[in-house]
Structure formats: structure tokens, C-alpha cells
Amino acid sequence: MDKTIEHKDYLFKKVYDYVLHRIERNEWKEHEKIPSVRQLAFEMNVHRLTVLKAYQLLKKHDKVYVKDKAGYFVQSIETKHLENLNQSNPIVSAYLQKNHLSEIHQPAVSYQFSQALIDSNLLPNHYFSDYVKKVFDLYPKVLATYSTVQGDLELRETLTQYFINQYKTHISADELLITSGSQQAIHLIAQTFIKPRDVVLFERPSYSAAIDIFKAQGAQIVTVDIHPEGYDLQQLELYIKQYKPRLFYLNPTFHNPTGYTVPIEQRKKLVELAEHYRLLLIEDDAYHDIYFDEPPPPPIYTYDSAGTVIYIRSFCKYISPGLRIATVICQSSLMNALLTAKSLADNGSPLLNQKIFLHYFSSLRLQQHLEKIRIALQIRKEIMEEELAITGWRWTSPKGGLNLWVQLPNNFPTELLLSKSFEQNISFVPGQVCDPLKQLSSWIRLSYSYANEKQLKEGLKRFVAVAQSLSK
Amino acid sequence: MDKTIEHKDYLFKKVYDYVLHRIERNEWKEHEKIPSVRQLAFEMNVHRLTVLKAYQLLKKHDKVYVKDKAGYFVQSIETKHLENLNQSNPIVSAYLQKNHLSEIHQPAVSYQFSQALIDSNLLPNHYFSDYVKKVFDLYPKVLATYSTVQGDLELRETLTQYFINQYKTHISADELLITSGSQQAIHLIAQTFIKPRDVVLFERPSYSAAIDIFKAQGAQIVTVDIHPEGYDLQQLELYIKQYKPRLFYLNPTFHNPTGYTVPIEQRKKLVELAEHYRLLLIEDDAYHDIYFDEPPPPPIYTYDSAGTVIYIRSFCKYISPGLRIATVICQSSLMNALLTAKSLADNGSPLLNQKIFLHYFSSLRLQQHLEKIRIALQIRKEIMEEELAITGWRWTSPKGGLNLWVQLPNNFPTELLLSKSFEQNISFVPGQVCDPLKQLSSWIRLSYSYANEKQLKEGLKRFVAVAQSLSK
């Protein structure tokens, strides 16, 4: 039996290598059609499943691509990082499958300016294990127990108290839902409130994963521009009256990707508009605590008395990505609908993660840790701004968050910049990916949060050199 | 500011108590309409939001219910545990919101025969914390790191090797997806493959949460009965030809709720039917390792060469419910579709949970632990069967799994048995809940896995007494 398995594994690898070698030796040229599954199976005297598996892996490694019903073709070197889904815009499609992209490119890219993640060295990894051990002492049966759908009551009460203290808002633990990260929160909201062809309002630009999620639900997206000073509220009101959107998904504090923060007066006005037009506001506040000089204005949610705001607060990025904990706050009738969706989706987030998070969140060390992160990120932001100064490109220096949103000169060849950067082991996010309308091709998002200071300097010098070579 | 918050909390509680007292003193009788939100707000001189919150909590505690646009009414005592969603069948609707039910009833119910969970005292809680500490030593940055969408490669490779060793199947780590429990796996599959009005085939009876999930996707459900010896394959084939279902959701090993196991000859035939009619088989195998005498037949999935089976293997129930880890196995083109859904749903399960699970799964202690669980559960099954012997009710003694599926005499008042049992602090699952056709009202599911031996004996004696009082 063992021989049979080894033999099958050997055959699979044999097919894979056979195809790869011919591609690498240029026996099969770029965009040339390779033998069909059936053909190669016959030629190599192996099972079709074996060839199919090898072809799937070659496709996943961007060595070949599939054209509708025409078969498999050799991938070209330039577009090999970009073409994967047969979509019309390869840059966009590549990033729309962003995790797929990171699986492909992560090992290869030394200068990572595309993922808005915090350098793991800035997180207090050593102390985490202390908290975890404490959790097991406090709750010996934590691994044997399911959480409720809504989330651990102790955690919800702790978070409730936190929000009451911070913002003088009055909410109760019943109005909180614990989700497995903000992605899940957005997805549950989209599933619960959006049916195909519902109109949803988005900022432009916005968070690409949220764009994907609402589109997957069949939503039609109408956009309102976000500026350093917020929105054009008159324009916003016109759109609301004209298109009657079901909801407005917004990220008004250290906005991703722009870094802009919507001022207080607008926050109050937004709530009034929402109540007047019966519009749900979905406030995604993932970057709230990552401020440089002073804390940002209170969440829009704290100005809401009519129950039109659903507030998403993720703690993942700067506390513990590996735990995946976020909370949603909203009034009861909205909460009941979300609970149904959550119960179908996974029946409750894992209890262990909630308890670990609870204890770390409640600790003094968290505050010290956040302080250090703020300082470290501000330094990195400044390094990035120094390195980019020579280009003459324009950006608004953000007061918090993880990214610079940079405007390239008109007609700058952004796609080429992307592929040349990849060749130099550098990644960033093209503006198109953050645009529901898929334009904004003169803009790029550069994250300063992931690379360390040395990598930032080296990588940005290289990046600037690549850009300059394209400007001639 | 603090005074204001305390005052608001006080008002909320005041309204809640006010209404509750009147109901308990019978000043407001069962099914009587209570004051509207606006009315009571005016009477008590509080904000409408305060009254609304109090009413929502009363509704959640089953003290009042809402009738369409008519307002709030006092809940009756008999149906108070059952009515919550304005659905036509209260028993079914109560259990369809099963977690809601457990939140309401868990504290009150001493004899828990409704939740197919394993007594946490049977799980090796003490040793878990050792494994967790080990994980932090091995992966110091585990909390600072996201998992990929598909799941930790090391875990997938370990599980792949496990399946290869167990079943002599040949799969690769690419064909595994890690999900946050089997609930999420079923949900992702429903979202990916089912559009409204697609027909899906279900066993009858089946797993109630799966029924809910597919119905929520708009599926039309066609059922095929499951018997102690499996299915009527001729009938099955007729249904497939007639209704052309997209998929067949099945649980062929220690089936929930019946405990039946589909024999090997049928497993092979099912795969042939699936391939012939291009039917997807969704094999949910959550109870595979909970066998009493000998291991069950290999999964249907191991007979599949055409890629028509999607295999779900959850380890939650008997390894660690608190971690929520399951794996899905299927061929690449199906996997790619699931990956898109998973990436939208939550972008990957938490890494910490996967690493903890990986190390525990790979340990010797797991085998010893499983052995103990099997023995303990077999003893509990036998205790339950002994206690029920006196009733003359009929059931097929299961060879594994967590439940007895018991047939009551014709016309037995099952609803009344349920409410009288609740009064005696006993819970079980009425057969209707497990039936896609919402009949099977003479059947009940009793789980022997949660209560300890003493609680089993006491609780079942009480239960039998209640049942006997209803037979007269």
C-alpha cells in the first residue's frame, strides 16, 4: 500500500516537473498552448487526475493560466504575478485575491509596503504567553467550552465598560457582538442587510475587501469622495436622495487608504442625515487607537441616538492579529438580525481567543504597548516621507493609521511601476484596487507599518530609483 | 457625567421591573396587550429608547412577545419557552434558535439531554494548557501573525498525512481547508454552491443547523429517509433523476440524530451515483472517532476518484470545542471556489487555534484521551438505555456517536412532554426539529454525552416519570 502511495506522489511530481522544465527551457513559449490534460495523461501513461493536479499546482504557481474552454497556456514572465482570474484588469484581479497574492509573493518580496499590517516585532509577543497561561489558570475548561453566539459575556461587559468610560456613551453588553475580526463583521452586515441590487454608499477610495464583500452580495455601489477635510455633505445628501442607499460603509478615522479623519461637525451631521433618510451607517473604526499626536474625535456612533449606526471596532491590527477579535455595537433590533447571521455562519467565535483577548485588553501593559506602537509608527511614517520627498509626489501627511496615500503625476505608468517593483522585491497597493470605480490609477497606497526602519530606508530608496527610471 | 449614566441605567431597570412585576402579579394577563413604547415612555417620563430597551430584554427573556405591528403582549407560561420568532411552529422555532434557547435555559436546566456536546469533564483540560505553552515556545510570534485563508500549512500537512495513513487515500495539503468549526464549513459550502431555488437532498431526519443553513440560502429541500441499514438506493436514484439536486448533504457515520451508519457497499454506490448524475456529496463526518466496539467504515470520500465529494471533518466535539477547528477536503476546482468564500467570510481562521490544535492532534495523549472518551460514552449510553427500558419505547442502539433516537408511541403528546420536562429541569430535542419536513413528532433525540453518570440516572428517572404521567 505504501508503495502505491509513493508511486502516485512520484507520478504527480513527475508531471509537474516535466511541464515546468519545458517552460523554463523555453521549449514551450509564453502564451503557447500546452497539451490538454487528456493528451498528457495519455502520453505519460498516467491518470488524468494526476495531470489535472499537476496543472492546478502550476496554475497556482503562475506558470500556466487557463483560457475559458481553450485549455492551458504558458504564463508570460511580466504578467505572471498579475494574471490569475481571467479578469479584464490584471492588477485589480491580482489584488482582489489579496491573500492569494500574499501567498504567492510573500516569500519573494523583501520590501513589503502593500499589507497594512503591523511589524510583528512591535507587538509584545513575549508578554502574550504570560496572559495565555493566566487564562488557563482562571478558566481551566476554556478549551472544552463553546462560546455563545453573541460572544463571551465577561468580554462584552468589559468592552462595554471601556466604551462607556472612553466616550460617555450609554450602551449595554446586549448591544455588543464579538466577531472573528472586522472582515467577518462586514460580511455578516452585508449578508444581513443587503440583497442583490440594493444600493450601498461607499467612500472613494475605500477598503478593498469591503468593496469585494458588498459586491459579492450583489450590491450596486455609489461613491462619495473623501477629502482631507471630510465629505462634501451637500453632494452626499443629493446622492442619498437620488439613489436611496440602504447603507453607507465608512471609515472616518485614519481612513484606509487615505489617512484622512472626518471632523466632529460632520460626524454629527452624518448622524442627522442618517436618521432623516433612514440610512444605516456602518462605521469601521479599525485604526482608532493608532494616532500620533492626539486622540481622534469620538466615533460617529457616539452621536447616534436613533439607532442608525452599526459600529465595528477591530483590535486585531495592533493588539493581536493571531486572535482575530472585533466587536460590533448596535441597537437591539439590528443586533438580533446580526445574531441570526452569526449563528448560521459559525455559531460563535472561539471562546479561547475571547478570554485571552479579555485579559490582555484589561491589562496595564496594553496601554504601554500602544504608546510604543504609536511612537514607532510615527517614526516610520516620517522615514517614509523623507525618502519620498525627492520624488515631488504629493500626499497629505496622516495624523494616524498605517498608510500614505500618494498621488503620482498624471499619466504615470503605474502598472509598469508595479511590475518593475515586484522584480525589485518591492510591493505596494495600486490605487485602482481601493477604488470602487476602478480608476484612481495615479494614486498608490504605501504602508509604513510592516517593514522595519532599515527595510523602509533601503526599500524606499530602491522604489524611488525604479520610479525615477520610469519618469524619463 | 457618571451620574447621568447611572441614572439612565437606573431608569432602564425601573421600566423593566415595572413591567415584570405587573406580569408576575397577573395585573397584565397572558396574551394581554401591554402599553406601547410611546405610551409607557410618556407615563413614566422616560425616553422612548429606554422603554424600547426594556421591552427588548423582556422579549428576550420570554416575558412578552411582539405581534406584527400590533404591539407587545404578555407571554403565556406554557409556551413561554417556545415562542420567540412569530413562526408557526413554536417548538421548531425555539430550537431553530438553539443557542438562544441555551442562553435562556442553560442555567435552569439541570438535566441536559438536548445538546450533543461532550461533558467537559471528559476532556483533558489539564493537559491542554501544557500544549498551549508549548505552542508559544515554538512560535513566539503566533499572536502577531495572521493565518492564510486556506489555513496553516503545517497543520494541513499534518492532517494530510493523518488521512493518508488512516485511509490509504491520496490527497495533498492543497486539498484541505481549515475552517472555524463544521458549522462554518457547511455555511461556506451552502454559500458557494447554492443559489435560491436550487434543490438539495437531505437525509430525513438530519442535523437541524444544516437544515437552517441551506434554507437560509433559499434551497428547496428534498428528503430521503435514513434507516439502520442505510438508504433505499433505488428511491434515492429516482429522486436524483426527478429533482436534479445540486448536492446531497449527508452524515453517514454515527448519523446525527439517529446514530445509524451507512454500510460500505452503499458508500461505493453513492459515489457512483454522484459521479453519474454530477451530484455533489457533502459528507459531514463529525462523529467518526466516537465508536464503541470497532472503527466505522472508511469515509465515502475515500471511494471518490471523480472529485464529487466534499468531506467535512470536525474535531471540535471530542478534542476541543473551545478551539473550533474543522477541515474540509475536496479537489482543487471546488477548493478554489470555497477559498473565495472563506476569504470574504473572515479571511482565514485564527492562527493560534490552528497551532494549538496541531500540537495536541499530533500527541500520543490524544489517542489515550479518545480511548477514555469512547469507554465513558459507551457506559453512559448503556445507563440511558437501562433507564429507558421500562418505557417500552423503541430505538436502535447506536454503535457510536452521542445520541439515542427514540420512537415514542403514536399520538404521544410530545409538545407537552417538552414543556413538562422543562418544568422538571430536563431538556431534549423534539424530532420535528431534526426533520426538514417538520413532522417526525413521535421521535425524540436524547444525548447521553453531556450529563455525568449521576445526572443521567437521576434525570432520566424523572424524565420517565414525566412521560408516564402523560401516558395515562
Automatic annotation (TrEMBL), chains A, B:
PROSITE patterns: HTH_GNTR. One of its GO terms (molecular function) is DNA binding. It holds the Pfam family Aminotran_1_2. It comes from the Bacteria. Keywords: Aminotransferase, DNA-binding, Pyridoxal phosphate, Transcription, Transcription regulation, Transferase. Gene3D superfamilies: Aspartate Aminotransferase, domain 1, Type I PLP-dependent aspartate aminotransferase-like (Major domain), Winged helix-like DNA-binding domain superfamily/Winged helix DNA-binding domain. Coiled coil: none annotated. Its cofactor is pyridoxal 5'-phosphate. Residues 9-77 form the HTH gntR-type domain. Homodimer. In the C-terminal section; belongs to the class-I pyridoxal-phosphate-dependent aminotransferase family. Belongs to the class-I pyridoxal-phosphate-dependent aminotransferase family. This is PLP-dependent aminotransferase family protein. It comes from Lysinibacillus mangiferihumi. The lineage of its organism: Bacteria, Bacillati, Bacillota, Bacilli, Bacillales.
